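pinging the channel bc i need a second pair of eyes. not urgent but kinda urgent?? the chain im working w is below, pasted from the shared doc
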Amino acid sequence: MKRILLTVALSAIALAANPAALFAQTAEEIVSKMDDALRPSDTEGCYFVMEMKIPLLGTVAAASYVLGDRLRVETEMQGEIGIDWTDGVTNWVYSSKDNTVTIENAKTEEKAKDADENLGLFKNITEGYDVKISGETADSWSILCTKSKSNKNKDDPKKMDLVVAKATYLPLSLKSSLKGVTMTMRDIRVGVSEDEVTFNPAKYPDAKIVDKR
């Protein structure tokens, strides 16, 4: 009897520590809760890293900070760093290669659009993909997203591997391959400050400023 009571007690403690274990969840339910967890990013902003492995060129990583119309993208390739800021009116582009900041009238509406679309890959996944749980750890679910027969978009990969955190329902990563390029979105978080998306010249005191406005 003592052994039975001990087993019951340990099970209760485990369930209290992980409320999600109280009931089974389908992949669709997990993705729906992920959508809810990402919703605040529309007003609070978001951060994510897009990593691409390109044949012959190697790996390119771009970290994006998005807050409304403001955007900062940091790209690193073969040891060189480029940072691009925009507020919808002005662009500031820093190049570590020649330690220069170039200021221009805004041209990066497409970049802001691309950043929104990249994050949008996580939203409404079930509209273009069939989803199923392919694995699970104590901290996350792995979900296989297979392109639906009704999805006729040629630019959508045939499958994607999604990992969702159990504690927050935020996506941890999304991996896919298309035309030989492997893409991974990772390190997603909701909430970006204005300082993170605003160019501050004091942080680049030695850089040459080229104003092309």
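so Residues 1-17 have pLDDT under 50 and may be disordered. and The chain has four helices and twelve strands. — does that match what u expected or am i reading it wrong
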